[in-house]
Amino acid sequence: MNTPSTTLKIIDSHTAGEPTRVIIEGIPELPSTTLAQKRDTLKAKHDWIRTASLLEPRGFPAMVGAILTEPHAPDCIAGVIFFNNAGYLGMCIHGTIGLVTTLQHMGIINTGSHRIDTPVGVVTAHLHNDRSVTIDNVPSYRYQKQLTLEVPKYGTVTGDIAWGGNWFYLIESNKKTPAVNQNNIKQLTEFTTAVKNTLESANIQGDDGHPVDHVEVFSPPTDQHSDSRNFVLCPGAEYDRSPCGTGTSAKIACLHADGKLSPGQTWIQAGILNTTFTGTFKTITNQNKITPSITGSAWVNGTSTIIINPEDPFATGLTSV
Ligand code: PYC
């Protein structure tokens, strides 16, 4: 692909510590199709947008990107496609909270409810007076209970497989897993990467044929302000700095399936930085699925213009490191 000579306008934010870089201008025209088809076009023809905006020297591996685009589904305020250092994400709740806060910063929306089109379906965002945002996520469910893996160096690991807008393998911490705290980020990353590699070699997939590519470890809470603390490994080998909204949705689906959480009850999920998301859910009649609602807050912390100069040897990012 020839590198285009262009600029991209971006607004940065973080949600509970996890960054979101929203590209608000400079995207080539995308066909007016579903968001899943738009994502496939981006992947096939314009992947340079992802690499230029997220990878070094402009970004860093943990950054999550979002392309603001026209919605396809009716009555939506915007369409969004999320991506990270490794590829494209189904849904991303911290990113949607970041997007909503960004749209408010741009003066496009006010408090109230707004529908947003994503590659995995329409989600509704409620922007509250206290600037927190609640996302009504896509239907979520547990697909497999207690799947056991033999993980090299770590032995037998057991976890549930659940969908919360991405596919997750959810492990309860125990004596064999590194303790879920900030001092153990390296050990937790190594452990969850070994689990993810085992899932990959065993070709473990969700019921839609997609790989189970996020791994979560849960531990009891470390204070009275939350119900649990987690560590979440995302595809691309980076950990989520936030409690991970899609991961919290998957967790709530498992708690409900085990009879441990009832519709309307809240679940406060702390992440590795001890920031929190509050989740609750409704059941869906005649289906084994729930609709989770996840609440959190984001802060806009930068605006800039990315310059893509075809003469720059790293105009589209350092793809080899
Ligand atoms: O909040 O859903 C989330 C998320 C997914 C990946 C990173 N954050």
Write a structural description.
This protein is α+β, with helices and mostly antiparallel strands and 321 residues long. The protein has two domains: 6-132 and 300-308, Diaminopimelate Epimerase, Chain A, domain 1 (Roll); 141-296, Diaminopimelate Epimerase, Chain A, domain 1, CATH 3.10.310. The chain has helices at 35-45, 47-54, 93-105, 185-201, 245-257, and strands spanning 6-15, 18-25, 64-69, 76-83, 88-89, 112-118, 121-127, 133-136, 141-151, 155-163, 167-172, 214-219, 228-233, 267-270, 276-283, 290-296, 298-308. It has a 17-stranded mixed β-sheet that branches. The longest helix has 17 residues, at 185-201. The mean pLDDT is 96. The structure holds pyrrole-2-carboxylate (PYC).
Key structural traits:
single chain, 321 residues, alpha+beta, Diaminopimelate Epimerase, Chain A, domain 1, 5 helices, 17 strands, binds pyrrole-2-carboxylate
Let me know the CATH homologous superfamily of the largest domain. Answer: Diaminopimelate Epimerase, Chain A, domain 1
Radius of gyration: 19 Å
SS class: alpha+beta
CATH topology of the largest domain: Diaminopimelate Epimerase, Chain A, domain 1
Q: Give start-end ranges of low-pLDDT stretches.
A: none
The portion of residues forming beta strands comes to: 35-45%
Bound molecules: pyrrole-2-carboxylate
- The number of helical elements comes to 5
Helix content: 10-25%
Spatial gap, N to C terminus: 20 Å
CATH level-1 class of the largest domain: Alpha Beta
Main sheet characteristics: 17 strands, mixed
Work out the number of β strands: 17
Task: Provide the number of structural domains.
Answer: 2
Order of secondary-structure elements: EEHHEEEHEEEEEEHEEHEEEE
